Amino acid sequence: MALNPASAFGSASAGDPYLPTSGNGGYGVLHYELDLDYRVATNRLNGTAVIRARATMPLERFSLDFAGLSVVKVTVDGERPKKLAETPRKLVITPEHALAEGQEFSVTVRYRGAPHPIRSSWGEVGWEELADGVIVAGQPCGAASWFPCNDHPSDKATYRITIACEAGYTVVSNGSLVARSSRSGRTAWTYEMLQPMASYLATVQIGRYRSREIAQDPVPQSIHFPQSLDREISIDFGRVPEMLALFESLFGAYPFDSYTVVVTHDELEIPLEAQGLAIFGRNHVDGVHGSDRLIAHELAHQWFGNSLTLARWRDIWLHEGFACYAEWLWSEASGGKTADENAVAHRARVALEPKDLVIGDPGPARMFDDRVYKRGALALHAVRRRLGDEAFFAGLRAYVAECRFGLVSTEDFVEIMQSSSGDDEVGSVIDRWVYAKSLPKL
Predict the structure, then answer these.
(1) With 70 as the cut, is the pLDDT of residue 1 above it?
(2) Phi-psi category of residue 289: left, alpha or beta, with phi > 0 → left and psi -120 to 50 → alpha
């Protein structure tokens, strides 16, 4: 029976109003296999992406997010497509044979070019050259700057990433390093991320780094850094194992197979997290623990943001509010201000800001407004005050365990916290802090 074309075209959007041109419909990605050859000296990338996916509807046509690089060849299950169209942000593929709902299929894309960041409402995001290396910061829509993908966090997949570049550079990507080989002055590095990952969290970091093991328990922890910062690195990141142990006790087991820190030669405006990784600039290293708050924040994202990932961008407070609250928890555990003292101080500061933001739906322009972070943390502290420590942290651990490697919403958090604690008023607390503009009292 012939398919109805009107119902067999996968949408060129995930349907998220915060990023209406990102993501795609009609299929879900199962696995990405990326084979990249990169020339640091000339910023030239040759890549092959093999994308294994499953159709969620009858498909005569579907699209991938892809920007700024040239397509060399595309096949679907080994066959050239009937039609291929490239727009500034999309690769639109009409396979030779229509795909049935539930059918698994493989798309291979060979491509090349000079990768560069994508311009967005939040600045330039994606693949970016450093003075001597590369940083990839994909949040929220930069993954398409270096590989074809379904660039929305609601479509998580596993990854195998191989990157070859000039010898002398260290290459870091998500997951465990499973292979490394050198030939003719070039070294290829292969990483595997076996836990599902959102595309914006996929990353490549390249630089002339020294490497050091921080700890082996409960998972391998390592750091890559400029040699000139050797002494300061030892001091500033020496507490990572303690932070990880604290967060395991409060949130549950660390979710991934390893944790890696990269400190770039360049200064960075802000640190950033990727799945299994955190990246800092040299300006975040001072040898006197001046960035402990930031180090705790990025580590906490491994639970809140990476293992538990928002299904829609409006719920960004579930990432940033939780990571901000983890800063206060680390301060409390390490002899600094208690979480209560931090909450009182930050509520006073938030009270000076305009009361014009609903952090549960801040709008795309203000997704990363500081009030989303601080008021999100205050919401959690308000829930903690209501439930008490035992019920609050038991509820957090239940939330992390039930939603592990999955997608989350504010409704999920409220439902699990209420179920775990037996207190039906958690939703009312969240409503006041997350869905109202007025600022409640603690």
Answers:
(1) no
(2) left
What are the tokens at 44?
Answer: 């030239």
Average pLDDT on 92-109 reads 98
**Residue written as tokens 């994606």?**
126
73's enclosing H/E stretch is: strand 70-76
Question: How far is residue 314's CA from residue 316's CA, in Å, rounded to a whole number?
Answer: 6
- Helix, strand and coil content of the chain, in percent to the nearest 5, comes to 30, 35, 40
Q: What is the pLDDT of residues 163-204, one digit of tens each?
A: 999 999 999 999 999 999 999 999 999 999 999 999 999 999
63: its two tokens? 């699209």
Cα-only R_g, the chain: 22
Q: Which of 250, 264, 256 is nearest to 296 (CA)?
A: 250
Contact (Cβ atoms closer than 8 angstroms) between residue 205 and residue 172 = yes
- What confidence category does residue 2 fall into, taking pLDDT thresholds of 50, 70 and 90? very low
Q: In the numeric block, which tokens belong to residue 218?
A: 């409960």
Question: Left if phi > 0, otherwise alpha if psi is -120 to 50, otherwise beta: which for 322?
Answer: alpha
Burial of 79 per CB tally in 10 Å (0-12, 13-18, 19+) = exposed
By DSSP bridging, strand 27-39 and strand 44-55 are antiparallel
- Residues listed for the chain: 442
Residue 336 burial by CB count (10 A; 0-12/13-18/19+): exposed, middle or buried?
Answer: middle
CA 237 to chain CA mean position, Å: 21
pLDDT value of position 25: 97
In contact, 36 and 164? CB cutoff 8 Å: yes
The answer to whether 199 and 149 have CB atoms below 8 angstroms apart is yes
Q: How far apart are CA 253 and CA 291, in angstroms?
A: 24
CA distances from 193 to 31, 96, 302, 347, 416 (A): 10, 32, 13, 39, 28
The CA distance from 179 to 2, in Å, is 46
CA 76 to chain centre: 28
Tokens of residue 245, six digits = 């142990």
The answer to whether the beta carbons of residues 154 and 311 sit under 8 Å apart is yes
Predicted local confidence at residue 3, as pLDDT: 46
Contact 29, 149 (CB under 8 A): yes
pLDDT tens across 283-321, in order? 999 999 999 999 999 999 999 999 999 999 999 999 999
Place of tokens 């009409």: 94
